[in-house]
Design brief:
The protein is mainly α and 173 residues long. 59% of the residues lie in helices and 5% in strands. The longest helix has 26 residues. The two termini are 44 Å apart.
Length: 173
Amino acid sequence: MAMSSMPSSSSSASMSGMDHGSMPGMDHGSTGMTMVFFTATDTPLYSTAFTPHTTGQYAGICVFLIALAFIFRGLIALRCNALTLWAMWRRRQDTRILLREPVNERLAKLADRPWRINEAAAIAVLDVILVGVGYLLMLAVMTMNVGYFMSVLGGTFLGSFIVGRWTGAAVVH
């Protein structure tokens, strides 16, 4: 079906409640929709209910985004070390007093073992949480608000600075 044969009323009806001309950062010139960063302090984040009305509320949302980006970096570090942490937890459950193998060799054997459903489910849940938090951060950046963008960058820096050594080479490169 060609684009010209589509009824124009269906596309205008689906966007009838949206006034794109009043959205900050968007210019509907002759070259199409151009998006630029802007510095408004009343930009909604995720929903209209999450719209700051004062400078303090805007600062609170920026602190929230810093914390969310920090949590994202912490979750990446947790995910990179999930199997080793699982092996360490299993070792702590071992009630034997004398172990014949050194701790490092035992942890290596525990981390390199066959697939188990409970471990796979825990890692899958962690991956879903990572994707969800990543998308929330992406949506914050896509508002094109400079404060939100800088907050996400600042939280990413802070998280990498504090827990970056546990993320592993795969995430860094």
